Amino acid sequence: MEIRRPGMGIGALIVAFAGYSLIIDEPAAVIVVIVLSIFLMYRAVIFQRYSGEVAASLSVIRTVDKRTLRQGAAARVLSTASLSLPPGMQAEVCDLLPPVAEGRAPVYMPSENGLSASYELRLMAPGEARFAGVRLRLSDTFFSDTILCQGEAFRLPAMRAIPYGIAQDADGYGTYGTEIRKRGFLRGQETYSFRPYRRGDDLSMVDWKLSAKRDSFMVREPGRISGGSPLIIIDLPETGTDENSALAFFTLVGGVVEGALDASGTCRVLIISGANLITYLSPESGRDKFLLEMSRLAPVVRQSHLFRMPGRAVMDARRRALKGVAPLNRILQGTATTAFEVSVLDAMAVSGTGEAHLYSIYRGDLSHIGQTVLAAKRAGMRILLCVSRHEAGVAEKLREYRSDGIEVI
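^ that's the sequence the OP posted. Answer follows.
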């Protein structure tokens, strides 16, 4: 508990009258000293009692827009508080952020629902994190005090940060939050980070030494993709697609793009529809441009179709050719079979990243899916086929395209 200026003034008067009574031997001064001392102690006792009652009445409700988020991504927090204040007391309420969080929690301000505060925070370390509690500062005319409320109810909700990857040093010991180069053995690329194995990943990318030490499969991430977001390819559905399916798809890809913007500040988006190239959004487009384009997504009339998806044997033969000697690789990378494949290769080259995530509802003619997978292989990129959980039934069918992975979201 701290004494404020009015209380310090009364204390100064007590000292002055006490000195006066000792020097002059004035009984009236002694009475004044006693009265002022009793008054100050009475106010201190009353303040302590009221402080305990206010702290007991305090309740805080927090809502977070993202309970699970990428390490370093922003989460929006809305906190509301209610408490019972006696007359003459003022209160300031402020959240105590998780120890691993970066941000600034403002003081709660009056609102329709009592006291509230809205702010952003970023979890800078992976794992679960909880709020440290609430700081309650109470004051009246003569005293002030700060109470830390750190019970379980004041630490909710729990949040979890997912790391970008698990890096590995030269001796095979993994650490979170650090990217250390390790030369990939006969891969032609450097490995910057590692992540848990996902169903559909290429088994040749499994790091068996690290997997044995961690007792779970770990997959190498090529160096080209560890430092930035992947190329997001959005395959717009054709006009006539079921309205509910289209809406669910647009909600999914909009959330993916917004999440990439929150995580790294920018992203790369290629929008196609079948064999039709719609637009490419570069990292320089700006957040507002990305969000505007996502709000405009709608089914389109496809002007051109491929209708000639190569069979599995043909695709496997072309992939084996792409893994051949360097001169043949250079020749194949410079020869695309369709105008669509040329456009996709150009966009992949401009993106400057080493991984692509393709989002589609996977209905109708899927020749362009195979062409996109082959274009990614020619560009030296990994490509994942991403499927909404509402369309999870097509995941097994997509295995014939032999992408680097199939992810159900």
